[in-house]
Design brief:
By secondary structure, the chain is an alpha+beta fold. The chain has a single domain, classed as Chorismate synthase AroC (Chorismate synthase, AroC fold). It is built from 12 helices and 17 strands. Strands 8-7-9-15-10 form a 5-stranded antiparallel sheet. It is globular, with a radius of gyration of 23 Å.
């Protein structure tokens, strides 16, 4: 059984849920680690008022006994603290619409103003809604909370084999960071201690200035994030079918994050700017190991990991919900209006990086368990050890 998960829940509903299947028996499921990952998603300069309301914490409902995975599906629940203000508008039970108080509360939360750049228009038309609330409650980035919880479990699996990763912001708006002089270890440490997840101190100050200016204008900012995972074995993924290629699987997972508009692997879009002799990473055999002195491929060749660090870069567009709204139409009247505004961030690029880490960790854990088995941790460790012996790595 391969690793897989499903999530449910709405932005202002009672709770968010996830069911994770395929976690090997014997993996320690650290609740405090999951909660810390959820907290990382909520920080960041430029975040909105929702982060002041919620302090996310996971409740592990099943699949774990005394802190250890049993091999059965793991059920997770994260409560929405703001639910107390939405119990009538977002209740799952039928409501008495003859009650004027009830009707007024529901109508007060109804949305018909469409936001350019959001799921509002296409979603309302696709599902035949006259209230855009039905769309935004699920299309909201609040949904990524459960993905971070699932990603935390994936990280715990990978951690058993010394595989770890991090993210850092490489640009926000027009400001780009320069981390070329830093090691990955240094970048990871500096990013983790920055509320913009930026390892360049000079760029950090300029980013903050640009975010403040955008907020004052009632608009929003996007940017670029780099995700790096190290100590991956050679051969995760496969070249034999299109849907087993790891680069394609990673790209799909990252593009599924709200507001992500592009994914690059290694040198990325710059790969088309140079001769092949300058792009491809030469192979050497030194001290009993196959090594590369460059990593333009970003750790992936032929849809498989090649032993080098996995390096991915994503671009997040500016958030569509803005205090100074764009021109749009009303879903009911079709008349011109200003787009709907609901509490939102000016910039959520650092948080997007944490979500991206989670999705990459999930795909890597899935591919790792496909390669080495998934029943229990002991057998998987034997399989990894034997594989490394065959490759001459032990």
């Amino acid at each position: 059984m391969s690793l897989r998960f499903l999530t449910s829940g709405e932005s202002h509903g009672k709770c968010l849920n996830a069911i994770v299947e395929g976690v090997p028996a014997g993996v320690f499921i650290d609740k405090s680690f999951i909660d810390n990952e959820l907290a990382r998603r909520q920080v960041g300069f430029g975040r909105g008022g929702r982060m002041l309301i919620e302090k996310d914490s996971v409740e592990i409902m099943s699949g774990v006994r005394h802190g250890v995975a049993m091999g059965s599906p793991i059920s997770l629940e994260i409560k929405n603290k703001d639910w107390e203000n939405w119990q009538i508008p977002m209740n799952t039970a039928p409501q008495d619409l003859d009650d004027e108080t009830v009707l007024a509360q529901i109508k007060s939360k109804k949305i018909t103003k469409l936001r350019p750049g959001h799921a509002d228009c296409a979603g309302a038309l696709k599902y035949n809604f006259d209230d855009v609330r039905n769309v935004l409650e699920r299309s909201s980035a609040r949904e990524t909370t459960t993905r971070v919880a699932v990603g935390a479990i994936a990280k715990l699996i990978l951690k058993e084999f010394g595989i770890c990763g991090f993210s850092h912001v490489v640009s926000i708006g027009s400001v780009a960071a320069d981390c070329s002089y830093l090691s990955y270890k240094e970048i990871a440490l500096k990013a983790e201690n920055s509320d913009l997840r930026c390892a360049d101190d000079v760029a950090y100050e300029k980013m903050k200035t640009e975010i403040v200016a955008a907020g004052e204008q009632g608009t929003t900012l996007g940017g670029k994030i780099q995700i790096v995972f190290e100590n991956l074995p050679i051969g995760l993924g496969s070249y034999v079918h299109w849907d087993r290629r790891l680069d394609g699987r990673l790209a799909q997972a990252l593009m599924s994050i709200p507001a992500v508009k592009s994914v690059e692997v290694g040198l990325g879009v710059k790969s088309g700017d140079y001769l092949g002799s300058k792009v491809h990473d030469e192979i050497f055999y030194e001290q009993g190991k196959i090594v590369r002195k460059t990593n333009n491929a970003g750790g992936l060749e032929g849809g498989m990991t090649n032993g080098e660090p996995l390096v991915l870069t994503i671009t997040m567009k500016p958030i569509p919900t803005m205090k100074t709204p764009l021109k749009s139409i009303d879903l009911e009247s079709k008349m011109p209006i200003d787009a709907h505004f609901e509490r939102a961030d000016v910039c959520a690029v650092p948080a997007c990086g944490v979500v991206a880490e989670s999705m990459v960790a999930y795909v890597l854990a899935e591919a790792f368990l496909e390669k080495f088995g998934s029943d229990n941790l002991t057998d998987i460790k034997f399989a990894v050890e034997n594989y490394n012996k065959r490759l001459g790595l032990l």
